[in-house]
Amino acid sequence: MTTRSCAAHSKSATPRAAASSMARVAVAGALCGLLTLPLSAQVRRDSSATPDSLAIRLRRAEEAIAQLRQQLDEQASAGVTTRSRMQLELTGRVLVHGVRNDRRVNNADDPQFVRPDSISPPPTPVVMSARQTTLGAALSARDVLGGQFVGDVDVDFYGGQQASSGGRTFPLLRLRTARGIVRWSNGELLVGQESPLIAGVNPVSPAAIGTPAFATAGNLWLWLPQIRGTIESSGDVRIALQGAVLANITGDPIGLFDTDVDQAERTGRPALESRVRVRWGEADHQGEIGCGAHVAWLDGVNSAPMTTHAFACDARVALASALELRGEGYDGRGLRGLGGGGIGQNLNRSALPLDDRGGWLQVNLRAGTQFGFGSGCGIDAPREADVVSSGRLRNQACAGYATIRPGGPLFLGTEFRQLQTKYAAGTVTNNHVSLALGFEF
């Protein structure tokens, strides 16, 4: 009698999804077995047990199973599944930023350098914006080409503003990263849009989300379409060889709707990257150091294509349980297409790729799960003698931030950033203060 009751409850716990059904049946069956075993044992030990007491115990077991079924049903209904019945996870951070600059900059929300026409400081208005709100979706599946598949997409609203009276309050959706990854025990294949292989680390910042912190001040970051492969050894310290074929672009502005090929795409050659990586540790205590090379080409118009290149190293090291050091450095030429190298300048006075070097370093501290602090600096220093007369000769940025998660999904962050941009007429400094308020999910 007891066994039949368990089987009946196990069958009735079946949800719509087949995989979830198996999990529910197993859990319900296990609970039922645990609850009824004592009943069977009690019956064997005490033949004088009354039918009323056995019925009461059975009813309690059935009530516990019914409660478990309800909890499982609520959990299944709260989840989001795809057409292929894979579980889909939604993430995001809704933020409102209030910012203030005391000089004219290239972008009021998240500035990268100071404009040359800001020698005389303008008034210091406070600007508010929700453009750095982000949304993400991710799914995973087992046994795909013999490995684990992970797919994700990340978007924000930093793609510009509608030409309207609303201006900044009508931001446009923008694709950041979109990746499909198959992972095996000793390898990985990535197809999609992601940061450059040789510069995959970004600083932590509550204020620089639309464009990562220290962009045009030592951080190569631009998300590019690519195909990337990795082969990795096993063990506590894992060594990996990586290679990537990337979109070859100059970073030049494009039209409002229609696009055309730029000076890099006209060569008909993709960009190529390779990297050696060393990893150790797991999860929050994982460390990584890597060095790699980048090569691409620009159309020489009436001559052979011009080569652009970079050599870069990056690191992310947990110095203690709550202390982390991260950064990168590079040396190369013609690197605007990797996210503002050469302070957003590709060519020198002779219309050849501009020599450039830069890097950044940041220290981060986590105080439990609620508080985070960090500070760092970055610099981009192209060869000044080769920069065009009206160009930017040097750009450096230093920033300090604090984040607070007071409870639940709430998020607060503040950052102070100082930018110094050098021109032939002198160096101009901007102090940027940002306060971010919002929630995460």
Blueprint of the fold:
Blueprint: H1 2-12, H2 18-45, H3 51-78, E1 80-81, E2 87-101, E3 126-129, E4 134-144, E5 147-156, E6 174-184, E7 187-194, E8 224-232, E9 237-246, E10 271-280, E11 287-298, E12 306-318, E13 323-333, H4 341-344, E14 355-367, E15 371-380, E16 394-404, E17 410-423, E18 426-440
Antiparallel strand pairs: 1-2, 2-3, 2-4, 2-18, 4-5, 5-6, 6-7, 7-8, 8-9, 9-10, 10-11, 11-12, 12-13, 13-14, 14-15, 15-16, 16-17, 17-18
Helix pairs in contact: 1-2, 1-3, 2-3
Pick out its properties.
441 residues; alpha+beta; Porin
What does it look like?
The protein has two domains: 77 residues, no CATH class; 360 residues, Porin. A 16-stranded antiparallel β-barrel has the order 2-4-5-6-7-8-9-10-11-12-13-14-15-16-17-18. It has 441 residues and is α+β, with helices and mostly antiparallel strands.
Summarize the structure.
This protein is an alpha+beta fold and 441 residues long. It contains four helices and 18 strands. A 16-stranded antiparallel beta barrel has the order 2-4-5-6-7-8-9-10-11-12-13-14-15-16-17-18.
Terminal-residue CA separation? 46 Å
Number of distinct helices: 4
Sheet with the most strands, sense and barrel status: 16 strands, antiparallel, barrel
* Mean pLDDT metric: 87
Number of domains: 2
**What portion of the residues fall into strands of 2 or more residues?**
35-45%
Question: What is the H/E order?
Answer: HHHEEEEEEEEEEEEEHEEEEE
Runs with pLDDT <50, length 5+? 1-23, 34-46
Could you say which overall geometry the principal axes of the C-alpha atoms support?
globular
